[in-house]
Amino acid sequence: MVVTLPPHLDAVSLVALAERLEARDGPAVLEGRDAAFCLGLSLECGPDPGAVEAFVRCVVAIRCGPPVVAFVTGPARGGGVGLAAAADRVLATADASFALPEVWFGLVPGAIAPLLAERIRPAELRWLAMTGGTLTAAEARGIGLVDRVVDGSGAVSESLEALRRACPDALLELKRSTAPVEAVRRGAERTLERLRDPAVQARIGRFLDGEAPWP
C-alpha cells in the first residue's frame, strides 16, 4: 500500500490522511508528490484544533499500526519531517532535504519532538530545531534521521521483504509498546497554544505576505 502525502497539511488533508492510515491492514509506504515529500502544516491554517488533532491521529496511526517505510524525495519540512520520523524505516534519495523551521515563526516542533528524539541525539535535535537549518540526505543519515540514502525505490521493496517472516500481531504489539503517544499529544497541545499567540500570528502573517517572518 502506498500512501501519498499532500505537499502541505491542513485539517481536510490531514483527516483524509489519518483515515487512510487507520484503514490499512498491512505494511505501507509513505511518499510525496509534486517534487516534495511534505512541507508540513500549512501556515494558513492558523490555530486550528482540528488540524492539530488530525496530525496526532496520523502519527498514532503510523506508530501503532502495521509497519511503515518512509521514502523521502525532495524537501521534508516541519510536520513532514515528523511523519517521516514516525515511520519504522526512513529511506531518502540524494535530493532529499530536511528542516525544522518552526522557530522562525515563534513555534516549536512540540508534536514531533518525541519522534525525532528517538532518532537524533538531544544536542543535535536541539540545534536543528533552534536554527531551522537544512540537512542534506547524507547529513540526515549521519545523525540518524535517515536510515539509508538510496538510489531509487528498489530499497523500499527490500525493506518490506525483510518483514515478511514477522508475525503481524507481534509487530503491532512491539510498535504499540514503544510509541510515545502521550508525549506527542502533549507536544501538539503546546503547539496549539503557541499558535494562538498574537506575536506568532504576526510572524506568520509577515511570511504569508512575502516577507521574512522575523522582525
Give an overview in words.
By secondary structure, the chain is an alpha/beta fold. The chain is built from ten helices and eight strands. It has a five-stranded parallel β-sheet with strand order 1-2-3-5-8, sandwiched between helices. A three-stranded mixed β-sheet has the order 4-6-7. Helix 1 (11-23) links the parallel strand 1 and strand 2 (28-31). The chain is globular. The relative contact order is 0.15.
Question: How would the blueprint of this fold be written?
Answer:
Elements: E1 2-4, H1 11-23, E2 28-31, H2 49-64, E3 68-72, E4 75-77, H3 79-86, E5 89-93, E6 97-99, H4 113-117, H5 122-131, E7 134-136, H6 137-143, E8 148-150, H7 154-161, H8 168-178, H9 181-195, H10 198-208
Parallel strand pairs: 1-2, 2-3, 3-5, 4-6, 5-8
Antiparallel strand pairs: 6-7
Helix pairs in contact: 1-2, 2-3, 2-9
Give a quick set of tags describing it.
215 residues; 5-stranded parallel sheet; 8 strands
Helix fraction bin: 40-55%
Q: Write the H/E string, N to C.
A: EHEHEEHEEHHEHEHHHH
Backbone structural class: alpha/beta
Number of strand segments: 8
Q: What integer is the average pLDDT?
A: 95
Low-pLDDT residue intervals, each spanning 5 or more residues: none
Beta-strand fraction estimate: 5-15%
Q: What kind of sheet is the major sheet?
A: 5 strands, parallel
CA-to-CA gap between the ends? 45 Å
- Walk across the major sheet and give the strand order: 1-2-3-5-8
The rounded Rg comes to 16 Å
Q: What is the molecular shape? A: globular
The number of distinct helices, counting runs of at least 4 residues, comes to: 10
